[in-house]
Automatic annotation (TrEMBL):
The chain crosses the membrane at residues 25-45. It comes from the Bacteria. Keywords: Membrane, Transmembrane, Transmembrane helix. The keyword Transmembrane helix applies. InterPro entries: DUF4307. This is DUF4307 domain-containing protein.
Length: 132
């Protein structure tokens, strides 16, 4: 005795609706992926191209009530801005935070700034730089 088949005969009813739905979902997914990639690229370009001031910590020296931070700042000529630096204690608590202004016309500023702390700090971290 044979068991009845629940499949439709091949070629009799055309493409199944599941195949059409799969194709539609693939197309919609591809379009959304391209749009997302374009958005991420545009946001990345906008962030890099519009950032007129940036800096990095070259080194730092720690004392009981201050941290001397060596900053190298890169900016467009004529742009005024500031960079925020912070220090943390050994247990991770923030012991100092300050903004340091960079108003010179130079495009590269190499400066040592002093960050006053409430207790001995163990780090010097550049939080970020912003234009006025």
């Amino acid at each position: 005795m044979s068991t009845p088949s629940t499949r439709l005969p091949e070629g009799r009813y055309g493409r199944s609706s599941d195949q059409r739905a799969d194709r539609t979902l693939k197309i919609v997914g591809g379009v959304l992926a391209v749009l997302l990639l374009g958005l991420v690229g545009w946001l990345g370009y906008h962030y890099v191209a519009q950032n007129e001031i940036s800096a990095e910590v070259i080194g730092f020296d720690i004392s009981d009530d201050a941290v001397k931070v060596h900053l190298e700042v890169h900016k467009d000529a004529g742009v005024d801005g500031y960079c925020t630096v912070r220090s943390q204690s050994e247990d991770g608590a923030e012991v100092g935070r300050a903004d340091f202004r960079f108003d010179r016309d130079a495009t590269r500023v190499d400066e040592v700034v002093t960050l006053r702390t409430t207790s001995p700090g163990t780090t010097a971290e550049l939080v970020g730089c912003h234009t006025d």
